[in-house]
Write a structure and sequence with these properties.
The chain is built from 9 helices and 17 strands. The chain is an alpha+beta fold and 410 residues long. The protein has 2 domains: 258 residues, Antithrombin, subunit I, domain 2 (Antithrombin, Chain I, domain 2); 127 residues, Alpha-1-antitrypsin, domain 1 (Roll), CATH 2.30.39. Helix 1 crosses helix 8.
């Protein structure tokens, strides 16, 4: 069976007591995503995360923040000073993703019989608020999230049935992600103190613009040192190409032009960490629109299913500790009682083969009450035989729907 691109991300934020037109812009999303990626990369190994989904969930949380909590979140998450523009930007990206699906369906209907794509692009995004049924939330907060994020409020009984509520939310997440993300919120994360869970999900399924050929026994240097043989892919055609500090980037188009797969491979076999440190949002934006040239691209098939990652400590260290401090955090825009974030959990999945990419990710944030290159004459050959970074980009904004690294594709 052919594998097409499936990308998916869920972000859930649990909170407890103590649409104007906009041009999509991915700069802040990518700046935050790279900063988080570099922190996660310190532990080594494979990584996959969704900067877009993590920021979407935190942007919904930010809508209820005030004072120092709000200031720290804005600085850490690169939200900027204009909150109205912030929420409009997330709505614009979600809207453009929806438009890509509509256009893809039309293209398939019109060109499928003439050799065009045989299946349309699938992208769904969803937001939902799960609130304690006996708790009152600020109406402006709920109205904003409904308008900008299409996030309705569903009442649950966290006080009497926290485990049932946890399973219900996890089932919603699994449903939105076609069962790619299961049991996102762990046991004990929802308790009688829980007042609100904000959830965001994205699911994407697409095929390459041009399928790859298989390359048996391709060489790959695991962690840059251990030589192994892996199942590889190869294709000669025009790809976006950009020389970046310490390496090169190659953009592989999907059947629908609004999305692309970005590979960033270091010049040296053990150069991934050094190259990652040089990556910036501006570089990602340049890569999103890099000029094309003929390349013979070799890279490995891979499938990543890393365990869930707890992000609370990372976010606090990155500059927003107050949001997690009981009795000090200020989410008065959500409710009159004291609120604080208790945990942020993230989980991802990515698989790439000759037909496309399948990717999924989920994040849960739990808040509780407590008191210029010269073109060669011959096609350029690029062999991705060493640890590399990758992204799935929304081309119009350059925003990374997914961002990760592969140190071992097996």
């Amino acid at each position: 069976m052919k594998m097409s691109l499936t990308s998916l991300m869920v972000t859930a934020i649990a909170v407890c007591t103590v649409n104007a037109e906009a041009k999509p812009d991915g700069h802040g999303i990518n700046t935050f995503g790279l900063e988080l990626h570099q922190r996660l990369a310190k532990d080594g190994g494979n990584i996959v995360a969704s900067p877009w989904s993590i920021q979407s969930a935190l942007a919904m949380t930010y809508a209820g923040a005030a004072g120092k909590t709000r200031d720290e979140m804005a600085a850490t998450l690169h939200f900027g000073e204009d909150e109205k523009a912030l929420h409009a930007n997330f709505a614009a990206i979600a809207g453009d993703l929806s438009n890509l699906v509509k256009t893809s369906k039309k293209n398939v209907a019109q060109t499928g019989r003439h050799g065009g794509p045989s299946t349309p692009l699938e992208i769904t995004t969803a937001n939902r608020l799960f609130g304690e049924k006996n708790f009152s939330f600020e109406k402006p907060f709920l109205a904003l999230l409904k308008k900008s994020y299409d996030a309705p409020l569903e009442a649950l009984d966290f006080g009497s049935a926290p485990e049932f509520s946890r399973k219900h939310i996890n089932d919603w997440i699994a449903g939105q992600t076609k069962d790619r993300i299961k049991d996102l919120i762990p046991q004990g994360a929802i308790d009688p103190d829980t007042r609100l869970v904000l959830a965001n999900a994205i699911y994407m399924k697409a095929a390459w613009q041009s399928e790859f050929s298989k390359e048996a026994d391709a060489a790959f240097f695991v962690n840059g040192t251990q030589a192994v043989k892996v199942a590889g892919l190869v294709k000669r055609r025009e790809y976006g190409y950009l020389k970046i500090p310490g390496g090169v980037s190659v953009t592989v188009p999907y059947a629908d032009d609004g999305l692309q797969f970005l590979i960033m491979v270091p010049d040296e076999k053990e150069g991934l960490v050094a190259m990652e440190k040089t990556l910036t949002a501006d570089l990602l934006q340049q890569a999103a629109s890099a000029p094309r040239q003929e390349i013979e691209l070799h890279y490995p098939k891979f499938k990543l299913e890393p365990p869930s990652i707890a992000l609370a400590d990372h976010l606090a260290a990155m500059g927003m500790p107050t949001a997690f401090i009981q009795g000090t955090a200020d989410f008065s825009g959500m409710a009159s009682e004291k609120l604080s974030i208790s945990q942020v959990v993230h989980k991802g999945f990515v698989a790439v083969d000759e037909y496309g990419t399948e990717a999924a990710a989920a994040t849960a944030v739990i808040v509780a009450i407590r008191s210029a290159l010269i073109e060669p004459e011959q096609p350029l050959e690029i062999r991705v035989d060493r640890p590399f970074a990758f992204a799935i980009q929304h081309t119009k904004s350059g925003a990374c729907l997914f961002l990760g690294r592969v140190t071992d594709p097996r």
